[in-house]
Target: glucose-6-phosphate isomerase
Amino acid sequence: MHLSIPPTVNYLTGHIDADNVIAKETTLGALEGVFADEVKRAESAQDNIIYRVEMLPAQHAEGELNFGVSHIEPGLIGEEFHMTRGHIHQRKEQAEFYFGSQGEGLLLMQTEQGDVSIEKVFPGSVHHIPGFVAHRLINTGNTRLSALAVWPAIAGHNYDFLKDVGFNVRVLKSSTGYKIVSNDAVD
Model:
């Protein structure tokens, strides 16, 4: 019998501790077309890291699960908060769970019919993202927002959702924290 030490996660920071962690950084330069104020995005430092993703090595077989953490840095592009690119699953019927770890923000979800729902993300929050729903994390706080995620290995990610359909609302800074506005209301 062999006793092994499994990977660990720090629930306060979302950091995964394992020898085989896969890490990816997404810079502002890679997010063309994501923020409403494209001029402001293009004028800002393109190497600025907006979010990082850590995950255990991907599983691919039917019935397997993947585990990862998204870390979204605080900040604004124009009046819009830092956020992930957002996606719908390649296998659209596949669901996902997010678990708030640190910081504060919002989980923006949108059905294929354009219906929007938004949930507050905070340490300890649990979020079920049903199948056929696009989703994006938005950091509305002053510190890093981290959320753990578990999703089916066969789900895949369709990032083209953004340019094909896009999200119907934006989250902008306001005097009371944030406001949610229709995408049509943003100049």
